[in-house]
Structure formats: structure tokens, C-alpha cells
Design goal:
Number of strands: 13
CATH topology of the largest domain: TIM Barrel
CATH architecture of the largest domain: Alpha-Beta Barrel
Radius of gyration: 23 Å
CATH class of the largest domain: Alpha Beta
Structural class: alpha/beta
Largest sheet: 9 strands, parallel
Strand content: 5-15%
CATH superfamily of the largest domain: Glycosidases
Helix content: 25-40%
Number of helices: 12
């Protein structure tokens, strides 16, 4: 892949006579067949405008992050919490135009004996929620059959913590998590396979009101011993509890057993709601950072699921690609997670970014630019992974809904969805997933089969 660490060239505006400039521009346009290449206008800026307002990341020469940290943020060994790629992007800046440092790698290669015989699919898919799985599954299949789509993501463990079929999972049965939303999971999988559809099981992971309420010993608790609840009143489980990861692993194994091609872990993060500063994570939190415990849990799941013949993916906030501050808060390190996963799926919905992010006044009104900038950041981060190591394929989630709650928004339709897809391709990636909670997708935005 082309080296994407660009030289930080500073430009200064100068007053020139307009006539010669216009003639030169017209001549250049003719020579290149009017084929212009749209470049990022905020990545290389003057010194007085180095702060990207929405990301808490400083944009300076050579894309080096100038974030600071103190002892309170340190890892358990006292080291800089911005390990891996973040540590490489801190001051002092290199004198050369291109970043030349390489990270330190463990001598032992992870899963060195694993022989990968799995068949990969260049997935382009849509999400079907548990609420609409019975009502709209056939419509989703028809859309996939008639367009460039070839993959589907369906809820197996929903946002409420319920499992959508009668899974053979002892703890899930014990706490009453299993439902009959999908009456016959084997028939459903067979139906999808008969249409040549790549199947992905969505598993909402650490947001789990059912497990947390039934097994209070596994729930996030406040310092007074009461159960922590998010802004919607829902309980979460504690990522520092080993049994939480065992529960998730068994769900993943059951999904592979019924024939899913991939397990997709969503909400694989810490809660971010008000009151988290009052949570007591227990003694293990004194030994491991949030990033370390999430990464370790993902690693263990991958070590079991990959040899079973299925792929493992995780959904992550788009902001954690470039912001070490956000990464530490939610416990998601884009760099570290990608070293174990098969696929990493950043949610780069334009509506989910603050005004000014990437220099865009209102990100939701710039679907192409937002997706392109975010995924170019992804390229920079993952470039730093040693080629000898595992490196996840990037498959972003794109927005196929209108964010009416955002004051400055667009009505998302054919042009907006297609603009995001173009942003994916222009950033050097080929896979993507569309999200619409109501399972109402813009068919006109998709190429015909």
C-alpha cells in the first residue's frame, strides 16, 4: 500500500494578479482532462489553526499528536498510556518529513501455529434488527439479491441483553436471556446461505441489562454498592469480571455452531454516561487499564473463534481512530484491537461528529469528506502495525438514516449514501456496512447486481 504519511508542507497565501493565475488554472484543467483530485484542506494548516476542534487531537506537521498525559493516566507499569501508535505521535517531532520510527513488537508471534483456511468475502452489507427480523428479513434478502450487497448483520444478542433464539447456553437459560424472536435459527441461516449471503451475528457485549440485573456480582456498581445505570436506566456488566468474557465467548461459540460466518461484537466498550466517575470497578482495575482489559478480552475470543472457522469483528467509535483521549475513556484502542481482530468496524456516521471535526462546519452535511478523513486516519494508524502481525481489515459502518436530532443535517438519500461509499473507496478500503435501525434502506444508492 502507498505510504500515507505525507510530508507536512506549509503553504502561505500570497496576493497575486488574478489574470495569469486564472489562465494557468484553465490550462491545467485542460491538460488533465478536468480531472481534479480533492485533497484534505485541514490536514496541512498554518500554525495558528492547528487544533481540530472536535477531536482533542492536534494536527501538526507529519500528523504527530501532541496530546499530553500525567501520572494519573499512566498504565499499571507507569508507562505512557498512549502506547503503540499514540506514543509514536507525541513530541518531540521528527526532523524528517516522513515518520520513520517503528513500534516495539513482542518477539513471540501471536497464534503463530494457526493455519487460516477461512474464505474471506469482500462484504457489503446491511443491518436487520431483532425488532424487524421477522417482518423485514425477506425484504432484506430481496434487496441483497438485486444489488451489490452480499452480507447481512442480524441481532443475536440485542441492546436489551436478550438472545434472539433458544440458544443452548446454560447461563443464558438460567437468567432468562433466551427468546423465540427467531423461531428456527437453523432454518434462518440455511435460507440466507441458499441466497449466497455472508452472515454476521451482532452481539451487544458489555451493555447487558439482563445479565447485570440477574447476576449483580457481574454488574457495574457505584462506590456505595448500588448498580450503575446509564442515561436510559439500563445496567451494564463489568469488563473486569472474567465471567463476563466467558459468557460472551460461549455466545460466540454457539453462533459459530449454528453456521454464522462471523461474530460481530458491538458495545465492546465502557459506558460513557454521567456518573461513571463514581463507579467501583474492583481490585483488578488497579492492575489493568480500560484499554488493556478490553483488548485482552477480544484477544481471548479471537483465539477460540478463529480456529473454529469463523471471523471476529468489533464495532468501535469513529473518534477513537485518532483521539487517544476518547480511546482511554471507552477502552477502545484502534491500534491494539486491530492486531487481533479479523475486521474492525468504525462507526463513521457523519451525524455522530461534533461541529468543526476535521475542519467541517457541520459534519452531517459533508458525508463524503467526513468518511474520507476518518478512514485516512485509519490508514495512518494501521500503517504502524508490523506486516508480520495480524492486521484487521477495515469495514466501516455508514449512515443510511436522517439524523433529525442534529440541528444542521441533511436528509440522507441516494446522493448522501453514495457519497459515503465513495469516501470508503477513495480512502483505500473496499468493504462497508449500512445502518438503519428501522431497516429501511435507500435502494437507489446501491448498484444493481
Amino acid at each position: 500500500m502507498e505510504n500515507i504519511f505525507y510530508e507536512g508542507i506549509r503553504t502561505k497565501r500570497r496576493r497575486r494578479k488574478k489574470g495569469p493565475v486564472i489562465l494557468l488554472l484553465l490550462l491545467a484543467a485542460v491538460l488533465i482532462g478536468f480531472g481534479g483530485y480533492k485533497i484534505s484542506q485541514k490536514l496541512l494548516t498554518d500554525e495558528e489553526d492547528e487544533k481540530d476542534p472536535g477531536s482533542e487531537v492536534l494536527v501538526v506537521d507529519n500528523m504527530i499528536e501532541a496530546a499530553s498525559w500525567d501520572a494519573a493516566d499512566a498504565n499499571s507499569d507507569g508507562s505512557d498510556p498512549d502506547s503503540g501508535v499514540y506514543k509514536l505521535w507525541t513530541e518531540p517531532k521528527p526532523t524528517e518529513a516522513v515518520v520513520t520510527q517503528t513500534p516495539d513488537y513482542d518477539e513471540e508471534v501471536w497464534m503463530a501455529d494457526f493455519v487460516d483456511t477461512r474464505e474471506r468475502v469482500d462484504a457489503k452489507g446491511i443491518y436487520v434488527s431483532s425488532a424487524y427480523i421477522n417482518k423485514k428479513l425477506n425484504d432484506a434478502i430481496d434487496l441483497i439479491d438485486s444489488t451489490e450487497l452480499n452480507a447481512i448483520v442480524i441481532d443475536i444478542k440485542s441492546d436489551g441483553g436478550y438472545i434472539t433464539y433458544r440458544m443452548d447456553h446454560p447461563l443464558a437459560k438460567e437468567i432468562g436471556a433466551c427468546t423465540s424472536t427467531i423461531g428456527d435459527i437453523n432454518a434462518t441461516i440455511k435460507k440466507l446461505k441458499d441466497h449466497g449471503i455472508y452472515t454476521i451475528a451482532r452481539i451487544v457485549s458489555l451493555k447487558d441489562p439482563v445479565l447485570a440485573e440477574k447476576r449483580k456480582d457481574l454488574a457495574l456498581k457505584n462506590k456505595d454498592g448500588s448498580i450503575f445505570r446509564d442515561s436510559s436506566g439500563l445496567a451494564w456488566v463489568n469488563p473486569y469480571e472474567d465471567e463476563v468474557w466467558e459468557y460472551l465467548l460461549e455466545i460466540c461459540k454457539q453462533c459459530v455452531a449454528v453456521g454464522f460466518d462471523e461474530v460481530n461484537l458491538d458495545y465492546i466498550r465502557f459506558a460513557t454516561d454521567k456518573g461513571m466517575s463514581n463507579v467501583d470497578f474492583g481490585p483488578k482495575a488497579e492492575e489493568m487499564t480500560r484499554i488493556e482489559v478490553i483488548t485482552e478480552g477480544i484477544k481471548k475470543i479471537c483465539e477460540v473463534i478463529k480456529p473454529m472457522g469463523a471471523f471476529v469483528s468489533c464495532d468501535v467509535y469513529g473518534a477513537i481512530i485518532s483521539s487517544s483521549t476518547d480511546a482511554r475513556i471507552v477502552g477502545q484502542s484502534y491500534f491494539n484491537m486491530a492486531k487481533y481482530l479479523d475486521y474492525i468496524c468504525p462507526m463513521v456516521y457523519p451525524s455522530h461528529y461534533g461541529n468543526g471535526y476535521y475542519g467541517l462546519d457541520y459534519p452531517d452535511t459533508h458525508p463524503y469528506e467526513l468518511v474520507y478523513h476518518a478512514l485516512m486516519d485509519s490508514q495512518k494508524v494501521l500503517y504502524m502495525i508490523d506486516p508480520a502481525e495480524n492486521k484487521a481489515i477495515v469495514r466501516p459502518w455508514l449512515q443510511d438514516f436522517t439524523a433529525t436530532w442534529v440541528s444542521h443535517h441533511l436528509n440522507y438519500g441516494k446522493e448522501e449514501v453514495r457519497a459515503q461509499i465513495k469516501g470508503v473507496y477513495d480512502a483505500g478500503y473496499s468493504e462497508w456496512l449500512l445502518w438503519n435501525a428501522g431497516v429501511s434502506y435507500t435502494a437507489d444508492a446501491l448498484e444493481k447486481e
